[in-house]
Amino acid sequence: MGNGDSGANHLLVVGCTVSPCLVNDILGRVSARDTDWDGVRLHVVTGKGGTGKTTVAAALALALAAGGRKVLLVEVEGRQGIAQLFDTPPLPYGERRVAVAADGGDVYALAIDTEEALIEYLEMFYNLKRAGKALSKLGVVDFVTTIAPGLRDVILTGKASEAVRRKNKDGSYVYDAVVMDAPPTGRITQFLNVNTEVAGLAKVGPIRNHADVVMSVIRSPQSAVHFVTLLEEMPVQEALDGIHHLGESGIPIGAVIVNMERSPVLLKGDLDAAAAGTLDLDQITHGIKAAGLEHDAERIAAVLAREAAYHAQRTALEAREKARLADLDGPRYELPLLADGMDLAGLYDLAQSLRNQGAA
Length: 360
Prior knowledge:
By secondary structure, the protein is α/β, with parallel strands linked by helices. It has helices at residues 20-29, 53-65, 81-85, 114-126, 129-138, 140-147, 149-165, 185-192, 194-198, 206-218, 233-249, 268-276, 281-290, 297-325, 344-356; strands spanning 42-47, 70-75, 96-100, 106-111, 177-181, 223-229, 253-261, 332-336.
């Protein structure tokens, strides 16, 4: 899985769907820097299911950690996807180093357990650790987070924002950056806009105050929400819609990251002929026989022609979807489809690709 090339100092905006004033406001929050995201310390990665957002989040964490930095990669959906990517045992509810980045630097990971986080939350704000554990045994924790899902989101985003703000005794930040593998695009605005979510729960008090602190981080120039997509109609549309909705919410938008991009394997003339069904089957058959495959060469040629037609259609679809993304005035990174599949080495390759394009 992957994303490949681009790079440049553009920032993300949805052409005609967002008003010019709103666009200028968003752009003003993330100015041109040595890398596209200097000064950004919370990177939220979202995308439609199946686009590889967890892989991209992990690659971005590796890219940001390169050169001696310390980065925390946070998972909020309870899938243990980070552990699988880094080939480690399931992550506990605690920050654990999972990788060493290029040229030094460390990636730590945290899989947030909602139940543990709620107990921690009750202890921190209400001094109710024992009560929290009792509630957990009674199943009340599940009940509370079900009837008040906004509280769950406050807890999850709160853990990430706390890591962003956490400092050492000398005043330096514990983590140079935090990368959150966030929920899918369809839920990202609700998930991040925690002030709205808790409005019906609390007007004042610890919950409300905590939500305000979380939003002060999420809405600040220290944050950026990146959208992962494939060059397919549904993922691209969800990315465009998500960018629009986040822009209206005043949450800083980051980059579009095109994942698993395929390179054409045919020249343009051959692609056009394949799409039109006018490939020279005799010539293909001759080539097959020249390769030593005399038996059933005509049938193999017909199969190859059908595959070429599918490839041409796929290439045209990807070109069309890429043109839709070109209307976004913002960084767009492209990661390639890895022919050998995703493994740890591939993850480092994707991280290097992101660095080459200015993402870190």
